[in-house]
Design brief:
Blueprint (H helix, E strand, L loop, with lengths): L2 E3 L2 E3 L6 E5 L6 E6 L3 H20 L2 H17 L1 H12 L3 H22 L5 E5 L3 E9 L2 E5 L5 H14 L3 E5 L6 H12 L7 E3 L4 H10 L5 E5 L2 H11 L5 E5 L4 E5 L5 H13 L9 E7 L3 H12 L20 H16 L4 E4 L18 E4 L6 H4 L6 E7 L2 H9 L3 E2 L1 E5 L3 H10 L4 E4 L14 E2 L2 E2 L6 H5 L1 E8 L2
Parallel strand pairs: 7-8, 7-10, 8-9, 10-11, 12-13, 12-18, 13-16, 15-16, 18-19
Antiparallel strand pairs: 1-2, 3-4, 5-6, 6-22, 11-21, 14-15, 17-20
The structure holds nicotinamide-adenine-dinucleotide.
Nicotinamide-adenine-dinucleotide (NAD) binds next to helix 7 and helix 8.
Family: Belongs to the aldehyde dehydrogenase family.
Protein name: Betaine-aldehyde dehydrogenase
InterPro entries: Ald_DH/histidinol_DH, Ald_DH_C, Ald_DH_CS_CYS, Ald_DH_N, Aldehyde_DH_dom
């Protein structure tokens, strides 16, 4: 496939490409241009040329294009989902959901954008005061490989609806779906240069987007360390930043919880997308009075899981997306095993069998009795491994839950109104769920506190994050 710059499908300036592999089979799924700084400069130029006309369009005219694109994406869901599964690894039903999720986001901002307006006041002594909302200009988006379509939607939906143009860099191991989605937006009427996609390495393409002074805002999703580098690179030009970084979401299961529902909550919350979700359940704190029963039922449920190629019928969990990610998961589990930190009651290794030999598979893993100071709790595990500890009650659970550098999501499972009131107040997180985890509709602001990031995406306020206010005071 080609990059999308100024509405044209282009090769990279270097003419080089890189292969994209299917993580379930190792086969090459496709290739993408190996972009570099020059390609980013060309994309910034195209985005700059497109900006005045795009910003001058009425919000309704911009929104219509997003709506047409969403319709087309839904119509082509089957092909897009197959491409997403092939390059990313997730089971096909999750890919279908993700593509629909992308369309949902575009439709949401289509519906919202006409409501983007400033303020007016008649202030005695100052005359008529208007506060206008202006788009920022060229915005940059740098995204990871775990949920490429959804995260692309979060970034482009609000930015384009608000009248900005954009240069977007997908991750190296999952760029193809993003490129195809950008093509569909072009076919739906998005003018050339409004959305440009440059593929290639983070150290060149990503860094140029972060530091080029022509880019007025950078929205980054990825690891904490990379986010810090992006912030440093963006600082000299005083750019606006949204940083959606890592998470280590705690799930607290109280003694009055519906155990069956909470077990299913773990299954979806931890093993969806092979555990490679920023807001996956990454630490489980369960009340000691129900811990044995909970672990027994959870283990039985985990053992029913079918691991395999995401395209195969009945597969509940696919492979990890990339070798580095798999190695990190293997290392952290091996280290815990060597230090005798907890007991592996399910998984803990790759599945056996000819069909798994070429893929990046790891079994869904449960580790019980994990000491509170274990790296299994302090590090973000971006894979299908769940450390579990029994706790004496809500006080201890909340203390442990908040004892993390991360603060992305958290959930509490209980039927007690006082527990809900206290936990939702005290949990340090950008999003708190009660008796559910992981679900994020486009209407809900999303982002983290502490090391999990800065700013919010999604929701109506995201439109404001992609605009700036200009105050005008008129005295006649
Ligand atoms: P990553 O930080 O390695 O890469 C993210 C993107 O940044 C990629 O496109 C990469 O090429 C690019 N990049 C790498 N170095 C760069 C640099 N120096 N300058 C600019 N760009 C650079 O992250 P990943 O491994 O792709 O994704 C997994 C991480 O993302 C996890 O920590 C996960 O929790 C986090 N994540 C967060 C959210 C959220 O919304 N908070 C959502 C999904 C994933």
């Amino acid at each position: 496939m080609k990059m999308m710059i100024g509405g044209e499908r282009r090769d990279s300036v270097s003419g080089r490409v890189f292969p994209v592999h299917n993580p379930a089979t190792g086969d090459v799924v496709g290739e993408a241009p190996l972009g570099g700084e020059d390609d980013v400069l060309a994309a910034i130029e195209a985005a700059g040329e497109a900006f005045p006309d795009w910003a001058a369009k009425s919000p309704r005219d911009r929104a219509k294009i997003l709506f047409f694109a969403a319709e087309e994406v839904r119509r082509r869901n089957t092909d897009l989902a197959a491409l997403l599964t092939a390059e990313q690894g997730k089971p096909i039903r999750e890919a279908v959901d993700e593509i629909n999720g992308f369309a949902n986001i575009l439709e949401y901002y289509h519906a919202l954008s006409a409501g983007l307006r400033g303020e007016f006041a008649n202030l005695k002594g100052y005359g008529r005061v208007t506060v206008r909302r202006r788009p920022l200009g060229i915005c940059g988006a740098i995204i990871p490989w775990n949920m490429p379509a959804i995260i692309m939607g979060w970034k482009i939906g609000a930015a384009l609806a608000a009248g900005n143009t954009m240069v977007l860099k997908p991750a190296r191991t999952a760029p193809l779906t993003c490129m195809r989605l950008a093509e569909i937006l072009g076919e739906a009427g998005l003018p050339p240069g409004v959305l440009n996609v440059v593929t290639g390495p983070g150290e060149t393409v990503g860094r140029e987007i972060a530091r080029n002074p022509g880019v007025r805002k950078v929205s980054f999703t990825g690891e904490v360390g990379t986010g810090r580098q992006v912030a440093l690179d963006a600082a000299p030009a005083m750019k606006r930043l949204t940083l959606e970084l890592g998470g280590s979401d705690p799930m607290i299961v109280c003694d009055d919880a519906d155990i069956g529902a909470a077990v299913e909550g773990v299954i979806r919350g931890r093993y969806y997308n092979c555990g490679q979700v920023c807001t996956a359940v990454k630490r489980l704190y369960v009340s000691d009075s129900i811990a044995d029963e909970f672990v027994r039922r959870l283990t039985a449920r985990v053992e029913t899981f079918v691991v395999g190629n995401g395209m195969d019928r009945g597969v509940g969990m696919g492979p990890l997306n990339n070798r580095a990610g798999l190695n990190r998961v293997v290392n952290i589990v091996d280290a815990a095993r060597e230090r005798d930190e907890g007991k592996i009651v399910a998984g803990g290794r790759a599945p056996e069998g000819e069909q798994y030999k070429r893929g990046l598979f790891f079994l869904p893993t449960l580790i019980t009795g994990v000491p509170h100071d274990s790296v299994l709790f302090s590090e973000e595990i971006f894979g299908p491994v769940l450390p579990i500890a029994a706790v004496s009650g809500l006080d201890e659970a909340l203390e442990l839950a908040n004892n993390s550098r991360y603060g992305l999501g958290a959930s509490v499972w209980t039927r007690n109104a006082d527990t809900i009131a206290r936990a939702t107040e005290e949990l340090e997180a950008g999003i708190v769920w009660v008796n559910q985890h992981l679900r994020i509709p486009p209407e809900v602001p999303f982002g983290g506190t502490k090391a999990s990031g800065i700013g919010r995406e999604n929701g109506s306020r995201a439109l404001e994050e992609y605009t700036e206010e200009k105050a005008v005071l008129v005295r006649l």
